[in-house]
Amino acid sequence: MEKRVVYTAATIAAVACVVAVIVIRKRSKGIKWGKVKEMFKEIESKCALPIERLKQIASAMETEMHAGLASDGGSKLKMLLSYVDRLPTGGEEGLFYALDLGGTNFRVLRVQLGGKEGGVVRQEYQEVSIPPHLMVGSSHDLFDFIAEALSSFVASEGEEYKVPEGKQRELGFTFSFPVKQLSLSSGTLIKWTKGFCIEETVGEDVVAELTKAMERQGLDMKVTALVNDTVGTLVGGRYEDGDVMAGVILGTGSNAAYVERASSIPKWHDELPKSGEMVINMEWGNFKSPLLPVTEFDEALDFESLNPGEQIYEKLISGMYLGEVVRRVLLKISEEFPIFGDIVPPKLESPFILRTPQMSGIHHDSSPDLKVVAKKLKETLGIHNTSIKTRKFVVDVCDMVAKRAARLAAAGIYAIIKKIGRDTLSDDKQRTVIAIDGGLFEHYTAFSDCLERTLRELLGEEVANSVVIKHANDGSGIGAALIAASHSN
Ligand code: ADP
Ligand code: MG
């Protein structure tokens, strides 16, 4: 009797196996790849950015740049005055600290500058990740957390650093959010972006907030300069290379700063700086134009975001969003066609589950059977047993989203180059260097390669030879310290 039961169970199992194989066969046969490709082509055509369209986008951005420089509120582009009118000369000297609050991490840094001969004598930094609940909690808690980390970093300062007797330590504060600067060392928060949302900080002077938190920690330090990360990147880049004219961030978010002639800033009413120059923080993430290739996926992403209607350009090009756009495209297609099996993988429905680093891992997979893609799909989205065809298709979706982003970012850089008149060849063949920083640019090679190729295409070969893109690794922290140094008393 017992034997019979076992036999029956085994039979059932065997039959189930055969049925399963047939179902799997049928399922993969059930994908009408022709139709899938058709749907993909349609989305791709909406994301397409031929060079002429990119040039129009760059012109539209340039127009907005003029409008933003003419008056406050004149444009979606805030074109914020940075009050940085002295770029480093190399003569900066002393011990300086910097604090860099970005999208996901913040860094504390100390640097000993040795003047003309010495350069950066030594530097150390520490990176701390920001607990997500602090990004949407209270101002007090966020700044306390930062001041505490800074305080313990200062406590670890070695004997080899030289604090001049009787002098307060000084700090350059890199704050990567839109700020209405009131002076070099003060500014009020216009709005949070990226994943931050703490209502009570908006309109407050972030230097005062930090200073109060430092006092609560018993930390005696002066905030000499408040700088945007783009400005820090530009300045850090300029210290290394005298031809750096702009700093661009392509990380969690995206933004750019560049050196403008003070006489080209109508909204600047004070006395013109001696240098005749002023660094402008564009806040280009908020650029918007009907020319931008915004699809239904971007609209839905924007609608559900913390800041609907805002930062549209940033949502198309920066690291916080690219993986999420890919997820939305894959979700839509898998609802129409069984590319991942008969049911839509439940994890694919959860927002922000596919992050940009995973997307770039997928995109960069060069193994013949795309096993990295298979692994990422399994680990991130719980999608098992993918065919090579499906994996290849997922790579194509990443490629489409990354390419659109990289080409749009190149158009932004081209707009700056045009605005400062470096889009034609000068008699003295002046070099123009753009310093770029951020995890997206640094790690996503398919993205950064495409950006550089597109910029060459926009400039034309001859001019392109005089324009250099430089990866400024962590330039923004050093830049903030340098600004503190050159404006120190
Ligand atoms: P932040 O923008 O917070 O100042 P980073 O400049 O280091 O910090 O950028 C981090 C961002 O860069 C991440 O949020 C992510 O979007 C992107 N990123 C990091 N690593 C990779 C990677 N391997 N591939 C693609 N994007 C990456
Ligand atoms: Mg950063």
UniProtKB/TrEMBL annotation:
UniProt cross-references to InterPro entries, sorted A to Z: ATPase_NBD (IPR043129), Hexokinase (IPR001312), Hexokinase_BS (IPR019807), Hexokinase_C (IPR022673), Hexokinase_N (IPR022672)
Transmembrane portions of the chain: 6-24
Listed pathway(s): Carbohydrate metabolism; hexose metabolism; Carbohydrate degradation; glycolysis; D-glyceraldehyde 3-phosphate and glycerone phosphate from D-glucose: step 1/4
Known catalytic reactions: a D-hexose + ATP = a D-hexose 6-phosphate + ADP + H(+); D-fructose + ATP = D-fructose 6-phosphate + ADP + H(+); D-glucose + ATP = D-glucose 6-phosphate + ADP + H(+)
GO MF term list: ATP binding; D-glucose binding; fructokinase activity; glucokinase activity
Pfam families per UniProt: Hexokinase_1 (PF00349), Hexokinase_2 (PF03727)
Broad class of enzyme this protein falls into: transferase
Domain Hexokinase N-terminal: start-end pairs: 40-239
Keywords of this entry: ATP-binding, Glycolysis, Kinase, Membrane, Nucleotide-binding, Transferase, Transmembrane, Transmembrane helix
All copies of domain Hexokinase C-terminal, residue ranges: 246-485
Gene Ontology annotations of biological process type: glucose metabolic process; glycolytic process; intracellular glucose homeostasis; response to glucose
Gene Ontology cellular component annotations, sorted alphabetically: cytosol; mitochondrion
Gene3D superfamilies assigned to the protein according to its UniProt record, in alphabetical order: 3.30.420.40, 3.40.367.20
EC number: 2.7.1.-
PANTHER family assigned: HEXOKINASE, HEXOKINASE TYPE 1-RELATED
Family indicated by similarity: Belongs to the hexokinase family.
The protein's name in its UniProt record: Phosphotransferase
Species in which this protein is naturally found: Rhynchospora tenuis
Lineage: Eukaryota, Viridiplantae, Streptophyta, Embryophyta, Tracheophyta
